[in-house]
Amino acid sequence: MNDNRFADYLLDLGSLVKEKATEAQNLKEQNCDAYDIGYLMAWHEIVSLMQCQAALFGIELSQIGLEGVDPERDLL
């Protein structure tokens, strides 16, 4: 497997995670019940972890599709 496939996979995965996290934020704003809050918190953890790991490996957030999202600002 070549590096381009890994990069493409990570970019696609990051974009999907960002999309799902945004959907979770919208659900929380509409319903604001305990389930939706917990669901959003799970996406907050996922995005935070992916962004921290990217930084540790010297990967730009734009390379994994997670640019422009701040978990502390956007997912709480």
Q: What would the principal axes of the Cα set say about the shape?
A: elongated
> How many domains comprise the coordinates?
1
Q: What is the number of helical segments per DSSP (H or I, 4+ residues)? A: 3
Between the first and last Cα atoms, what is the distance in angstroms? 37 Å
The main sheet comes to:
none
Pattern of helices and strands: HHH
Low-confidence stretches: none
Helix content: over 70%
Helical/strand content category? mainly alpha
The share of residues in extended strands comes to: under 5%
Radius of gyration: 13 Å
Average predicted confidence as pLDDT: 95
Count of strand segments: 0
What does this structure look like?
The chain is 74% helix and 0% strand. The protein has 76 residues and is mainly alpha-helical. It has one domain.
